[in-house]
Amino acid sequence: MRPLLIAGNWKMHFGRAEGLALVDALLAEAASVPAERELLVLPPFTLLAPLAERLRGTRLRLGAQDLHWEAKGAYTGGVSGPMLRDAGCDYVLVGHSERRLHFGDRGEALARKLRAALNSGLRPIYCLGESLAEREEGRTGQVLAGQFDEGLAGLEAAAMRGVTLAYEPVWAIGTGRTATPETAQQAHAGLRARLAAAFGETIARETRILYGGSVKAENAAALLQGPDLDGALVGGASLSAEAFLGIARAPRGAA
Ligand code: 13P
Question: Which residue in 38, 96, 134, 150 is the catalytic one?
Answer without folding.
Answer: 96
